[in-house]
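task queued by scheduler; priority normal; single chain, no ligands, no partner chains; default sampling; output format set to structure tokens
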Amino acid sequence: DWQSGYVMTNNHVINNASDVTVTLSDGTVLDAKIVGQDAATDVAVLKVDPRDYEGRIPSLSMGSSDDLKVGEWVIAVGNPFGQLAGSLTVGVVSALGRNSLNIAGNTPAYQDFIQTDASINFGNSGGPLVNTRGEVIGMNTAINPAGQGIGFAIPIKLAAKIADELIENGKVVRGYLGILPGPLTKEIAEAFEVDEDTGILINQVLEGTPAEEAGLQNGDIITKLNGRDVTDVEKFRLAVADQIVGEEIRLVILRDGKMKNIGVTLAERPGAQLASAPDEEPEGLWAGIRTVDVDSRDARRWIDDPAAEGVLVIGVEPDSPAEDAGVRIGDIIREVGNVEIADRDDYKKAVRKYEGKKAVALLLKRGDNTLYVGLKP
């Protein structure tokens, strides 16, 4: 917004910065202040004083990310490696609605990414992704360092909504249900004698939450939210977060073979605040396992139980001992051998103890269940 001086960027670009400046396309450098940050979507808003610039501050028109289709041409604009300002790369929309991505050092809790093969390099973060009419349809956010031609952008509809809330309130207030949802896998669907696309599974109802007060139970299958079908965990989480705190949502659930209608009055999601720094990239990999503390920001996509202990698995390397043993993303490691794990400090000690051993047992918490797997590191 050139008249008010608001500038949108990624949270991870400016987080912990003591001074922020904005460089315009003609090279003019303006001082900026941080208006608000939201680590959960990796969106931040800055403000410059338009009076510091002679004339109209250059800006782009907003497009519609809702109308995007796979195969459309897009252009990524950015400053690769912090040295090549104003660089343009061209590609197509490879996919829409990407989520459950593990982005080292910067994993937003709420994800609905546009995937593109337009080159998005380090330093492009916060730059616009535009359509062939020059309209902004996304904000470049992440790359996959392991693969060429894979980049991700936040849809402009989501980014602009978050920016508006940050400008108005300085923070983002989200609806909170209080469950740990999971996908209805083939095996679980067979056990419940339902189709895989029936809905999503409630792995756990957290104590003292709107979900518990409304009577939701572990093992319930959520099939509809406010009349709309529910089939994807991440989209459901986004939809709940987008609801107005204090208003009632209507859920249709399947329990013991019977459909039930349940109303739930949402609370404000705990921890709504100005964002702090993203968690550091986990140190090293043991047996192909990447972990974070269960109470870290990166863990919030899977668990928000304040009483949980252990370390959360957020990555499993392909063809690794961990993958062979059946360790999954979302598992909580509670024991390594005979060492109980409360946090990553315990985990690091256990890794040192069992480094080089032929085999070690891991005790995992997976949903409501615990199980042992044999690992050959």
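post-processing summary
- Confidence is low (pLDDT under 50) at residues 272-284.
- The chain has four domains: 6-52, 73-169, 175-268, 289-375.
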